[in-house]
Amino acid sequence: MRIGDDIIQAYSDLRAAHGTWASASLAALSLLLPLAPVAVPPLIILSAVILIIRYRSNGAARTGYREPAMLAPMAFFLLYVIGLAWTEDFGYAFFDLEIKLPLALVPLAVLFTPHADRTGGRGLLTLFIAGNVVAVAACVAMVPAHLLLGRGDLSSQLFGNDFSLFLHPGYFALYLCIALAAVLFGAVRTSGTAGPLLQAVLLIGIVLTGSKAGWLCLALLLVAAAMRHRSGPAAWLLVAALVAGAATAALSPNLRERLGEAWRAMRDDGLHPEATTSSEVRKLAWHSAAQVVASEWPWGAGTGDVKNELLERHAANGYTHLVEERINAHQQYLQTAATLGLPGALAIAALLLVPLWAAWRARAWPAVAFLLLSALNWSVESMLEVKAGTDIHAWALLAFAFMREHRTSAA
User: Fold this and answer.
1) What's the predicted TM-score (pTM) here?
2) Domain boundaries of the chain, sorted by first residue
3) Which of 28, 72, 186, 375 has the most beta carbons within 10 angstroms of its beta carbon?
4) What pLDDT shows up at residue 280?
């Protein structure tokens, strides 16, 4: 097993491609994404600025109109800036723009980087996977410590919020799924038993987050990988995941309750204002958000006013719990449409579909998997309203844009 050697080689490749300062910043960013969210925003800004300064004399940004996959996220951010024109709550508006800044800054850095220099993506993914593996190990190691401290029972520790130490469970599950997709679709080098071991650790982490969206993404990812490879590790991993999932559901009352709650919410068409479970709360949030979209069509409530509009709608509908917890739309598509109306709906569609089309044409399957995983998660979470969501999206755009060497070898 040569996992340590793979990490060293990943950093060496980055340094050879982009120099000492850029490689150090990008390596730290990739490694700390799942481990130290508070360190990620400054590292994203630093990495982008260093790349822009390093390649500023190449004039690559002037040809950006030829790369709609990078222009789409920049246009998304610019539309939120334009949304200031019909906003009164500038405090929340500037907070929102700060969260979404990586979606403009990172693609700009990519545009400044000449195509010939867009390498090192495999190294970024390798370091990101290493960070996720360390995060899973730390979370598992803390389970007995939590039990000794009296923080719930084993079932709640393994499938509750306490398991995920560094990120919200839904975001941690997405990070782990992106890492697993990179391994399954060959975006990183693995030697010996490293590949199966990484897959097993990432799979265990996804299951233990307790994220229902993460479980669905895992199932779809494994099916897609098994269909693509038809035999080998992916197929065995799918079988192992199904067996482990069935056994865990049979042994864990907490997991069975979570699955049952989600199933009841899907089957019940009614709305229950007093609900506090995650699936029912989402239904209430979607209902309020849809009302805001309809009432503010076609321009939306504005970049800063959407939060107040949603809370006022929650209150008018009697959704007391949502007001107390200041719940947003709990779905990015509705959130953006409520904020920016028809232009916002078009912008978020372009944010996904434009790079997805480019990745599909290039047969960059890890990038395709990332974008489809994002699309699914955005349907149940307003992921671009928090740093963990915009940071991973901006980082992944850069990592996959810098996979030139992978595309060349796969051609």
Assistant:
1) 0.91
2) 3-55+74-263+338-410
3) 72
4) 87
